[in-house]
Amino acid sequence: QIKIILILLSFIFLFLVGFYVKESIRNRQINDKLKTIASEVEPQTKQEIEQETIQNEVKASQSEIPETEPQTEPQTELETNLETKENAENKVVHKNVEHVNVPTTFNKEVSFQNLHNENNDYLFWLYIPKTKIDYPVMMSRDNKDYLHSSFYKEKLYSGTLFIDALSNKKENQENLIVYGHNMKDGSMFGTLKKLRSEKYFNEHKFIEIYTETEKRVYLIFAVREVSSNMSLLHYKLDRFTNEEYIQDARNNNIHFREFEDQYKNNQIMTLSTCMSNDAKRLIINAVLLYKTDL
Length: 294
Known about the structure:
Layout: H1 2-38, H2 46-62, H3 77-93, H4 112-118, E1 122-127, E2 134-138, E3 161-163, E4 175-179, H5 198-203, E5 206-210, E6 214-227, H6 242-251, E7 255-256, E8 268-274, E9 280-293
Parallel strand pairs: 2-3, 4-8
Antiparallel strand pairs: 1-2, 1-5, 3-4, 5-6, 6-7, 6-9, 8-9
């Protein structure tokens, strides 16, 4: 009997390995096809690329130009001492703020129309430079639609990335939540767990998305293990302040990056994936740094 059980277990194991290998290959083939479709855009000339880069650098730098301070009456010694004390306190509070060099060039050219023609649930392309995360993102009326379905709505265990179905502002939602499976082969959001490493977190700071009308870059500011309870703050789509959301991330995180105040009221993006413990989720929080029209 033990021999028969071992033989059966071996067959089951081989079947499962074969299934996952087949699914992994199929997933990769679909995504390679979509990348080809997405990249079928009119190539820019060298002059157009240079002009776009200059325009983007000007736009990014404009937000960093300090306003000219109006001239004021000379301060008294008491006022100067009070201000010095206040500045010292502020420096303590913000001593870990990281100055970020905002990327003004983008790594991809994505044709929204080509992908939308293939499936009108397509919303935008998501890419994290120097990682495997390079996928289309969908939106439908039900979060289950792409949980285990391919871009082409065929059965696929790894599913497709999608935003929360209740995001009535679509890619402009206050908290743009993107869901994806934590696949063992590293596909979908299977590599997000690498951000637990401080070195990896520091080397992979940015997320790019390509919508119908814009290119955007976000700064990753938090890696967190959170409750899977969808009613809690970290899964709210709106009706929260950025201040309370960021503070919640600051209080409970694996890694947290302090960033400059000028970005703190910008849109938040959350990447969410499952963990071995069903009561927990791994989420990555990012804040919008920069966007430019297509």
